């Protein structure tokens, strides 16, 4: 997730030689930006917590459980396999991206099968990445999981495709599949 630089001083502080959003007289998308997304999630949590069908007794309710239920829906239905994301001999189930994906409702696996929906990789040239392209599965960068966690939605694949494919020692941009979800 990139740092948000609205003011020029922030750009200078972090060594960026570019115009800030305030200088460009621009800001994040009003309907789709981070603040709008967080507001939608908070409104959903609020309505679930105060659901009239659950009655007027709030003493037994725990907003943390409501938050967990909402988060479990973000990647619900996704079956993810990682390719060259974890260090060799690392217990995949212990990696923060694996745990994050599961907290968001995804099922993670180490082996490919037809039920896999997403391959997460930084390199589109791996065997698993090539399989994803051949089978018309989503091939995404690990940042997609972090963005899904941050924004509370999974339809960010256009922003986070795996970016490189090796062909004869050339690195070519990977064209994203035109499949859509959510």
Automatic annotation (TrEMBL):
InterPro entries: BRCT_dom, BRCT_dom_sf, Fcp1. Pfam families: BRCT (PF00533). GO terms for biological process: response to salt stress. Coiled coil: none annotated. Residues 70-145 form the BRCT domain. GO terms for molecular function: metal ion binding; RNA binding; RNA polymerase II CTD heptapeptide repeat phosphatase activity. Its cofactor is Co(2+); Mg(2+); Mn(2+). Its EC number is 3.1.3.16. It is an enzyme of class 3 (hydrolase). Keywords: Hydrolase, Metal-binding, Nucleus, Repressor, RNA-binding, Transcription, Transcription regulation. It is found in: Nucleus. The keyword Nucleus applies. Its main location: nucleus. It catalyses: O-phospho-L-threonyl-[protein] + H2O = L-threonyl-[protein] + phosphate; O-phospho-L-seryl-[protein] + H2O = L-seryl-[protein] + phosphate. One of its GO terms (cellular component) is nucleus. Interacts with RAP74. PANTHER family: RNA POLYMERASE II CTD PHOSPHATASE, RNA POLYMERASE II SUBUNIT A C-TERMINAL DOMAIN PHOSPHATASE. This is protein-serine/threonine phosphatase. It comes from Vitis vinifera (Grape).
């Amino acid at each position: 997730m990139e740092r948000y630089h609205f003011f020029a001083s922030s750009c200078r502080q972090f060594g960026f030689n570019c115009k800030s959003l305030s200088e460009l007289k621009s800001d994040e998308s009003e309907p789709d930006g981070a603040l709008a997304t967080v507001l939608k999630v908070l409104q959903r949590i609020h309505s679930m917590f105060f659901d009239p069908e659950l009655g007027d007794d709030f003493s037994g309710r725990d907003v943390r459980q409501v938050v967990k239920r909402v988060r479990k829906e973000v990647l619900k239905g996704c079956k993810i396999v990682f390719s060259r994301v974890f260090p060799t001999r690392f217990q995949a189930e212990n990696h923060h991206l694996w745990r994050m994906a599961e907290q968001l409702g995804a099922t993670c696996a180490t082996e490919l099968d037809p039920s896999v929906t997403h391959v997460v990789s930084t390199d589109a040239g791996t065997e698993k990445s090539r399989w994803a392209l051949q089978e018309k599965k989503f091939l995404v960068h690990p940042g997609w999981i972090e963005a899904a966690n941050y924004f509370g939605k999974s339809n960010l694949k256009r922003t986070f495709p795996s970016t490189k494919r090796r062909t004869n020692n050339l690195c070519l941009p990977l064209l994203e599949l035109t499949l859509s979800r959510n």
